[in-house]
Amino acid sequence: VTGRTFETLDRLEVPDLRRDIERRRRVPDELRPIPKPPTGGRRVTAALLALVLFAAAAAFGLRVWTRDPQPRPVADPWSWVGEGWTRIADPPERHAGATWAWAADHLLVWGGCTGATECDPTDEGFIYDADTRTWSSVPRAPRPGSDEQAVVVGDRIYLFGRGGFGSVFDVASVAWAELPRAPIEPDHAVWIGSGIIVLQDAAGPGTGSATASYDPTTNEWQLLAEPPTDFNVATVTWTGQEVVVLHALLNDRNVAASPTVDAMSFDPAAGRWWALPRTALYPGSFASAYLDGRLYAWDYVTRWQSFDPRTREWSPHAKLPVDEAECYVSGVTIGSVVFGWNCGAPAVFDSGTWEAIRGGPVEETIYSKAYGRKIGVWRFADLVPAGDVLVLPLTGITLAGGDGEACYGCPGSPESLWVYRPPSSEPRAERSRLASASRGTRGRMRTTRS
Amino acid sequence: MRRTTGTSESDLGELYRQESGRLWRGVFAYAQDRAVTDDAVAEAFAQCLRRGDAIRDRRAWIWRAAFRLAAGELRARRITGPLVDGPVLDQIDDDPGRLLRALRTLPGNQRAAVILRFYAGYGTDEIARMLGMGRATVRVHISRGRKRLRELLPEEDIE
Question: What is the spatial distance between Cα A316 and Cα A241, in angstroms, rounded to a whole number?
Fold first, then answer.
């Protein structure tokens, strides 16, 4: 019986391979062995081996269960990384504006700007196998890109770039595919369990903020209801019920239209937007992360609050245990904690309190004659949740001229790659996977795209 | 479906005319990569020519060889992190495009089994020999693959 559906394959155009076949036939050395599937003997061996392993695992599991009823942790590719900071090998190449993402126990770094003065995006990338601790190149993507939004869904990394162009990298098959063009600029993106919601920043009069969704199953886009308020800085978080958007609208001089960060939510089931109480945070730069049913948010003057989606109320604001710094802040959920990065001063929220993080790159300083003191080297970080740990591609500062003023983003800026494991991090949990799938919780000062 | 057997080179030319299109499309549906498909199909025909009369059922042999070559190449690429150009099928926004995308969601052996069953028209025994697995396993692969395709393509006829 042949399904009619399969007959549609007959519409595919077939190349003429006769010349290639003839060439191969005439050069016997080019004929190569045909791979054999597992034989019956191999299957018996495999079955016996599986039986032995099962028996051993059952015996071990029974012993463990008898001693301790806690569930066994899932195999961790970062088992060789201890608590705190661990520096890992840099990728063979790394460009400003590269996109980082973690899927299927591999870390992808892709794209970025290759030009010395202007951004010339690349389509090249590399992948890090945490288990073997090695980098290898990946095939060139269908298109180049820089500063893209990455959303992880299972083994796949969806990348959304300027002009609505997108591509997907399947880590398991090491293969790229192009996505249909988005109907809006995907400046923010988040996985909501059944699809990807993207939001567009307002770019000026006539080009307001917008919302759309992408369904990986049907490979189709759909325009959704427009947000009630325009924004060009935002954090986007999925709570399991709604997409919470903290937002601000900054002008070219980074002056905000509202004195504090505003909030709204999108209900995908109803297709509607709702206004939420505004925060007490400053809109220049802010970050948020979702943990245990609450949204934690903070700003660059280190004020923080939390929001309860059920009561729709913000907690009173308090101070983070780190110094203020006028630059971009970012944050992410990792395992059972919230990690905040505040211009080189990280802090972790665990068991109801924030605590500053020391050690590793935080302690690396350089003496500035202009400031008359040592200043931290590592200022900028991407935050990449990677199972039970956080991967941080860091970019440092250089000291400019004779007076030693700090120069941010100048040529020759140092780069390094670190892994941070929170103290006593729990085994991989569902919320960790959710966090991995919903990066992009950083609101930052508006910058002009080149 | 008609089975073609024979021993001469002209028979192979006839087999190419009859079978190459369907074979290429079947392997492409499985590998979803033009380079892998071209290589596997050309290599299968070339080796069939070279082996001459040693092959009894050329059609079955070529299908088996092409699928195994494609599977081996896909396995090798996954291990060494190499060159797959994938975007072709996503540019096809029609019936075959939808079927290809649905097939891509199936595990490799399941995908091969349903293609060999529903597109190439092979029976369970032949598919089991081609893929090197038991008949019961093939039946499970076909059953699960068909169920998954029905979910993804509810409007289609997959019997």
Answer: 24
